[in-house]
Design a protein that fits this description.
single chain; 482 residues; alpha/beta; TIM Barrel; 2 domains; 8-stranded parallel β-sheet; 17 helices; 47% helix
Length: 482
């Protein structure tokens, strides 16, 4: 019986929530909480504080080798023009890559979050000892200050920032976006892991007073099978000692199921998964319509963010359709991803915002939005006109009628449903009042409210009524304004 199953869920723990270490939320959602827990609709800003050659080629000009890493670029520049002029070039890039027009464009297009990659060497001399970047540390003396300046500018535009430790010592994978070529040595080196733990602890201390920092990503694109759990626990412990409220983002190491299980019952920890359909042989064999359909079926949940994706499909995929259909299909693919990610995940970040020179095509967020190949949320300008009490009473009638019929002689606690409904309505209204935001980390947020309910009203095998009410209240509010 459905009712027996719902009761059993809470009886297992003596009538208390099953998840521990939940955040302690304000009665009315605070601005900091809304920044952190709302659905993140955003873009990466690659090539800004971690200089991939294809995104920021001008700083790689002096490098004549085939090594396209940032270390090769900065080393070549120092050899060519010295440390002071190289530092000046790097600082000029930090200051100019994103300007006022870019910030205004992001606000105008309702981007509420950005993921900004950085290398560990940006943090300063104390974090490069024993690494290749020790030799070029002078170039980065002002880099972290400028990164924090970016966070402050984002805050002034009501934009959240995911601080992404994209490049870790030794490289989380062999690609040069870790700052060096031939990496992939991070997880097998205790010294590299210890240094990275110090890096994220430093970041946590430095950003804990910024209300718009939505999380710290402790590694990017760990290699498949890397066995990252030990580092994840060490880094998380240090961050939590400094800031218990900070959201921690881990890489799924291309194994989404494994790390979805890892973060279960770890509130405040999210899995970063990257979804690209242009690299594998299996994807290349599919036509655009097949990949569009697959986007709608993507398995995600609110403990995950899609940290990277794009509108890019392989040439072999595009060759299966006529050129005249490409723009339409690209837009359908972009919209399918947006709708899927927005309904299932805690947030999503396109790769990437723009290129230093010219067009980035299907990798270029600005171009995809401007050409209507990727949507943004249109603001409704609608305000809440109700406190939810009438809607709660109506929903309560339906809930009571149904479950009394199911319960027969079992005395239930429908008042919990009403409490949940009004709490959900109130929370949804609070989020909506900040740039029409929606709750993103729905599971953690709901469980935290459930815990508060238990603390105030006591445990029960009927706590599921509060949960049902909460979900119904959130949905009812959104229907009232959309």
């Amino acid at each position: 019986m459905v009712l027996d199953k719902l009761k059993a869920k809470f009886e297992k723990s003596g009538g208390t929530p099953l998840i521990h270490d939940l955040p302690s939320l304000s009665t009315l959602a605070s601005r900091r909480e809304i920044f952190k827990y709302r659905l993140h609709v955003g873009t990466n800003i690659g090539g800004w504080f971690l200089l991939e050659k294809w995104l920021a080629p001008s700083l790689h000009l002096s490098n004549k080798s085939s090594d396209d890493s940032e270390f090769a670029a900065v080393s070549s520049s120092m050899k060519s023009v010295g440390v002071e002029r190289t530092m000046s070039k790097w600082n000029q890039h930090y200051d100019s890559f994103i300007n006022d027009e870019d910030w205004n464009w992001l606000v105008r297009n309702h981007v509420n979050a950005i993921r900004v990659p950085l290398g560990y060497y940006v943090l300063g001399r104390d974090f490069v000892k024993g690494t290749p970047f020790d030799k070029v540390a002078g170039v980065y003396e002002q880099a972290w200050r400028k990164y924090k300046g970016m966070i402050e500018i984002a805050r002034s535009h009501d934009i959240g920032v995911l601080v992404d430790l994209h490049g870790v010592p030794g490289g989380a994978n062999p690609d040069s976006h870790s700052g060096v070529s031939g990496g992939g040595k991070f997880f097998t080196s205790s010294s590299h892991v210890s240094l990275a733990v110090e890096c994220v602890a430093f970041i946590a201390q430095e950003v804990k007073d910024y209300e718009n920092v939505i999380g710290i990503q402790i590694v990017n694109e760990a290699s498949y099978g890397a066995g990252a759990e030990k580092y994840y626990m060490q880094a998380s412990k240090r961050i939590r000692e400094i800031d218990p409220t900070q959201c921690i983002v881990i890489s799924d190491a291309w194994d989404r199921g494994r790390y979805a299980e890892f973060v279960k019952d770890k509130p405040g920890m999210l899995v970063d998964t990257h979804i690209y359909k242009c690299f594998s042989d299996a994807d290349r064999r599919q036509a655009p319509n097949q990949l569009i359909a697959a986007a709608g079926q993507e398995w995600l949940d609110p403990t995950m963010i899609v940290g990277e994706f794009s509108c890019t499909l392989d040439t072999s995929t595009w060759n299966r359709v006529s050129n005249s259909d490409r723009a339409r299909l690209r837009a359908e693919y972009g919209y399918a991803q947006f709708n899927s990610f927005a309904h299932k995940s805690a947030g999503f970040f396109f790769w990437t915002y723009k290129f230093e020179e010219g067009s980035g095509g299907e990798w270029d967020f600005r171009e995809m939005v401007n050409s209507r190949c990727f949507p943004v949320y249109n603001r409704t300008q609608r305000k809440a006109t109700s406190n939810g009490e009438q809607e709660a009473a109506k929903a309560m009638q339906s809930h009571t009628a149904y479950w009394d019929g199911q319960a027969k002689h079992d005395k239930m606690e429908h008042w919990r449903y009403q409490d949940g409904f009004l709490t959900g309505w109130q929370d949804a209204a609070q989020f909506w009042a900040v740039d029409e935001s929606k709750i993103g980390q729905r599971i953690t947020w709901k469980n935290a409210r459930l815990q508060q309910h238990v603390q105030e009203k006591g445990g029960s095998s009927y706590l599921w009524e509060f949960e049902h009410g909460f979900a119904a209240g959130v949905e009812a509010f959104l229907q009232s304004v959309l």
